[in-house]
Amino acid sequence: MKVRTYLNYGGNCAEAFRFYEKHLGGNIRAMMTHEQSPDSTGIKPEWKKAILYAQIAIGDTEIMASDVPPERFQPMRGACICH
Fold this sequence. Notes:
The chain has one helix at residues 13-24; strands at residues 5-9, 27-33, 51-58, 61-67. The chain is α+β, with helices and mostly antiparallel strands. The longest helix has 12 residues, at 13-24.
């Protein structure tokens, strides 16, 4: 079984993924902004550079993520998965 984690960021998803790539040896496999989506009409100017979808591999672990609007973002309160 493979567990894939999906993270929500409050506007710093790209920065976080580049940090993981540099310091954890990650491999960014995808990173798309709202501006790059096939239908970017109606996107607010301040939201165009926000990440719509990102995926990174760190070893055997895959993480997917996106930025969420400030009114919906909540900091992570905790998580634990052990094997």
